[in-house]
Structures
1.
Amino acid sequence: MASARKPALKSSKSGNREETQALILSAAEQVFAEFGYKGATTGRIAELAGVPKANLHYYFKTKENLYHQVLEDIVNTWFAAAAEFDSIEDPEEAISHYVRLKLRLSRERPLGSKVFANEIIHGAPNLIGYLRTTLKDWTDAKARVIEQWIAQGRIRPVDPHHLLVMIWATTQTYADFGVQVAAVLGKDDLEDADFETAAETLTRIILRGLLAGAD
Amino acid sequence: MASARKPALKSSKSGNREETQALILSAAEQVFAEFGYKGATTGRIAELAGVPKANLHYYFKTKENLYHQVLEDIVNTWFAAAAEFDSIEDPEEAISHYVRLKLRLSRERPLGSKVFANEIIHGAPNLIGYLRTTLKDWTDAKARVIEQWIAQGRIRPVDPHHLLVMIWATTQTYADFGVQVAAVLGKDDLEDADFETAAETLTRIILRGLLAGAD
DNA sequence: TACCAACTTGACCAATCGGTCAAGCGATGG
DNA sequence: CCATCGCTTGACCGATTGGTCAAGTTGGTA
């Protein structure tokens, strides 16, 4: 034998099962982001993934099924990232960190953000339950922390939920509406420097708006 | 004669030409907003407008054509609204007005906002020219005004373009992501009071962030 | 009355798409 | 060597959809 392969359970000829699935999922994210759910075709996804369409349907029973997986992946990524930040206790540091974290996700995973945005814009038919339970709970918990900061006089009084919405909106816009932002900046694409300027501008305005003086 | 009608050019049996076209455009905006370009079907649009599909194609040659009209209507509305604001000269008043204006548009015309958002998310294939010319020019002009404010020490130094992006993002999110916002607020739909709270929160944070003290 | 232009509409078609299927392939184990 | 199992794939199908068409209908006009 030339070498001992390491088949997880069974081996196969080209790549292993998980590799192919990941390839399809990645292609699906890209195509769903670019064309929307209905506009995406399993044929195009398969082509981008480099597999025949029938093979795609071997790993994912239906297009809807595949879409659900893509959505779930994205939501999990975001949620895992959000957890990392939950512990910070100083308002300035916490908000600054969160803004930069979300901005980095917009930079690194814009396609996922677009798929998510698409889903929400169309009424979130597949995520409404998640929004009303998991996301709402997380938001409420975060809002309570913000209210504590307000009660302690550490930040000015603002509506905590709307503050969180504001942070989501301003950071995700650099992924979802990246084309528009780039256009008004006179560029073809957003670069690292633009994200750095965005982070500076956002944190400055929001933090100063929250911290400056007493009420 | 019972009454003298006023046929624009020629009369017809049910409604006049412009009325029917407006009906179709309104239905199209709704269906495009809900299902995206590809997901929208001319059949559904026609049904919602109360005309046979063939009649829809009599007034609008192709689906793409109809979509262009919907987009143009929205862009024109926004641009007309933006012009109304251009003259205000005091930073605080100007920004407060602009935020409330855009928030009102999100409240009153969320479907148009969603169609626009959809188009941008998918790479703005039909609007990239508009973004790079008309919108960029308007943005640059506005940015110059903001830079004057900064030079005059009337607001703190921030990147003017990113400030404008911030205002767009925060206000349009209440239209495009209304379902998500409502969900984390624990409601089924956003109400007038929510838009008022949003306006308060946004203007407070942004204005205080811009105005507070010297640098 | 006769005619015409604008408008309406049901029936229809070609193209696309999601999904199926059966035949085939490669490797493992007996 | 053969049987089996997981995987691959080209060909195919029914359903949907954008768009067409030809036969109407309506109302104004000469």
Note: Chain A touches chain B through 60 residues (CB under 8 Å).
2.
Amino acid sequence: MITIYDIAEKAGVSAMTVSRVINNTGRISEATRKRVRKVMEELHYIPNSMARSLVLQKTHILSLLITDITNPFYTTIARGAEDAAKRSGFRLLFGNSDEDYAKEKDYVDMILSTRVDGVLFAPTGDHSLEHLQQLQKHNIPFVVLDREVPGIEADVVLGDSKEGARKLVEHLIGIGHRRIALINGSQDVSTARLRHLGYREAHTLNGLPIDDSLIIHVNYRDFHDESALEALLQHPSPPTAIFAANNMLAVGVIKSLRQRGLQVPQDISVVCFDDFVHAEAINPFLTVAAQPAYQFGSLGMQLLIERIESEPARENRKLILPSELLIRASSQALVRA
Amino acid sequence: MITIYDIAEKAGVSAMTVSRVINNTGRISEATRKRVRKVMEELHYIPNSMARSLVLQKTHILSLLITDITNPFYTTIARGAEDAAKRSGFRLLFGNSDEDYAKEKDYVDMILSTRVDGVLFAPTGDHSLEHLQQLQKHNIPFVVLDREVPGIEADVVLGDSKEGARKLVEHLIGIGHRRIALINGSQDVSTARLRHLGYREAHTLNGLPIDDSLIIHVNYRDFHDESALEALLQHPSPPTAIFAANNMLAVGVIKSLRQRGLQVPQDISVVCFDDFVHAEAINPFLTVAAQPAYQFGSLGMQLLIERIESEPARENRKLILPSELLIRASSQALVRA
DNA sequence: TAATTTTGAGTTATCGGTAACACAATTAAT
DNA sequence: ATTAATTGTGTTACCGATAACTCAAAATTA
């Protein structure tokens, strides 16, 4: 491993002089600067960022924690966050909690021990409170992404879960559906609660009764509660449409339906939150409330960087980004038998 | 920032004793161990991993560099790599080069200055040679993923690009297509070269002529060469099917076709490499050669960890993982007019 | 020409840990 | 009871960088 001392020796100067050349600080004569530069290149010198961070107490690394790396919604966020971080010269440390509290904890520990300068944090749910409080305790700036956590005051970038849900359900109502099931994430997650609210609001605004037996709570990351679906389908008055609270749930639900020999949308309509951008470009199918994922990432990152770089702590900001209703093939007007 | 010295002082011991408690090394009486532990908890102590890495000359961080974070093929790789790294207790630093040489360079610099213990490297192309050589020069172990780089001897995990391509094209030939276009990645990328070879092989094995005017080279990440597509379609004897060399190219091609009012598969068939797992589960459409992405990641990571941990340098290994031909709606038997 | 300022370095201490060695107090062995 | 071994803990040096201070030589000013 080449260090500044190796460079210093070979160039016949002190380590401090090498450091000054690297950082363009202090006064250095053009002659020594050139000589040091040449030796650095000859020896393929790369500064040790850990040593530097240790003394500077700054890593110039930001962390992005997402909850599902195979979900295009989150990877698009990642792209946006990365682009924004790069623009400001920060390096980015990705983490993927897989909607798992324990993995999230591992990543928080890693973040803390790495002493990153800030975190863009998509929480797994309300219990992430503990992790965010840990960040606060250690004075690590963060911005909360996609899901609000009660008890945490911070900058936050959110979607319009309630309105988006209402729009989706009203679309279904508008094309004749009356029995609409909700397959939702855990009530421990703010977006799931709001989407539930939007679902109810759409019903009451349209004078429809709400049947709680049509509402199921599972995990956002995947749907595999076959018995719950079975119960829905065996219902004396079964749903004619399903609102899956996110794209991954829609995947699971449609898969399960197909295994039971049911076709979407012929036998049952399905709508959900979040788009599958690439795939839908190929073959538009799902009716969705599409959220501006890239903006989630880039705006969130901007807020984070502002917070890090603005000395006087400014007040918290809350951005709510609207979703767009995209009506496609998976929702079909109800044909009364 | 709490350090071992703070702990040491409050517990009335030396810093070294604290270090021993943290690492479970050396001999410590049960009494002091307890006392130190208690103070650590009271002060919410988190070890500074940079200080530790600096003295140990080991970071216990591995890096995964992928070329497109919004491509489900790569995110599935990431999931596999992450799981494998976690099993061995390594932390994972993701990087995303976006198929861009300059970004790849940035990440390599970051990898070098972070002194990670090893890299799982999906190169952007043959010119990545320079970056891999830099890793070699600095003795950073790495495993090459998905694309081979001429001039580099290393462990490598690949797909069966040639055979996969041949199977896809033979499928098209089998259902009557004779004029098959190839929309390929840059010839600077090994998989693109091999898929090209497979394409040619399928033709020659089946006694079909090859028309080079049906072959286009673009960038794997997205297709936006409208004029090239235009030329294809204006061809006196236009293609009846298109083989897009990866999933992202298929997206771009199908979008462009639709803008021109052409339907897949009615007007033209499209097949490609790499699946869109979630989306295809919802609505099977694309005929693909599906690669075992998760295995790419987990096996690659296993090779990397073995290489790092096995003292005597063992010989290089080359894993070639077969792809699976999944015939779906986007390829249709040719109906002669 | 003497006094002052500027320039171009070098020295030392420090960031937060750990390895290697040292050493007093017990405990065990002879 | 003396010697040897073990146990528990402290000291010092170092990992690779940088901040703060120092200082001789050169340049500038009076």
Note: The mean pLDDT of chain B is 95.
